[in-house]
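Anyone opening a protein record will find just a pair of labelled lines. With that in mind, the following record should read easily:
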Amino acid sequence: MKAWRLSELGDPWDVLKLQEVDSPVPGDGEARVKVASCDLNFADILQCQGTYQVRVDPPFTPGMAVAGTVQAAGNGCDLKIGDRVLGMTSSGWGGYAEEALVRGSDMRIVPENVSLAAASAMNVIYGTGWVALHRRGNMQPGETVLVLAAAGGVGSAAVQMAKVHGCKVIAAAGGPQKVQVCLDLGADVAIDYKSEDLYGKVMEATDGRGCDLIYDPVGGEYFDVARRLLAWEGRLLVVGFASGTIPSAPANHALVKNYSIVGVHMGGYRHRMDAVLDKCYEELWEMVASGTLDPLVSQELHLEDLMDGLISLSNRGTTGRVLLRPDLR
């Protein structure tokens, strides 16, 4: 099979090589899947560089999550050949390949009325959005929701999910093209925070009240702007730090404005509170199958074109989801 392999840590476009290798053999509790789709994540770049919180020693194939069909199962794995599955990869055999290894206990069976590509596109972004907005943020119809980096993967999902739930959605993105993407997704207001004053525009759009919920996958300087934009009893959802800077907040400001800063760690529920994720995916499968939610996919790449996608992702040049589809011809 063909796989992108890394023998030393570094920028993926420098160290990854497309190789012909033997199919990986599943260990105890593992299965080998034919990769139908793998969503590109910024965390994959960090893992190649050796700076991600979960370190993998070379050699390995990146690609943290896949959707595919089971080809073989190891001892103690409850998956069956032919099962359509979605989940995290394992043992250094990730999704940037024609085949990957997964742990059976980490997999979800994809319903027949959901395509494997759609399952891959929705997996991390809608799962994160559901946990953030519904579980942690207690989003209510009629509330005002501000989404930062709204044209990206997790941001575009949050815009769609808040709008479907009956909220007023203010989307913030960088550049006119991304602003238009947000409007196309259904945002009521879209702000270009590269050329417009984010604080002033949001306060204008809310008649000076601020926002009930703020979805922040960026961190850095925008975190300080976001917390000043919270309404009374608002909730600031800490989703990630795409800026590369981890911010902090003065506790007295949270007290005076009576707001909450809420951490969001979707992956932490796995094997700790599995029932939460079961409910999450039960609702998401239904909404994706019915078309209520439609994952924004900006690119579908052949295996040979992976580097183009990773470089665009690194340069913040992508919108929605970029999928690697080894089975495309």
Remarks:
- Residues 80 and 104 are 10 Å apart (CA to CA).
- DSSP finds ten helices and 15 strands in the chain.
- The mean pLDDT is 94.
- Residues 2-110+296-324 form a domain with the Quinone Oxidoreductase; Chain A, domain 1 fold (CATH 3.90.180.10).
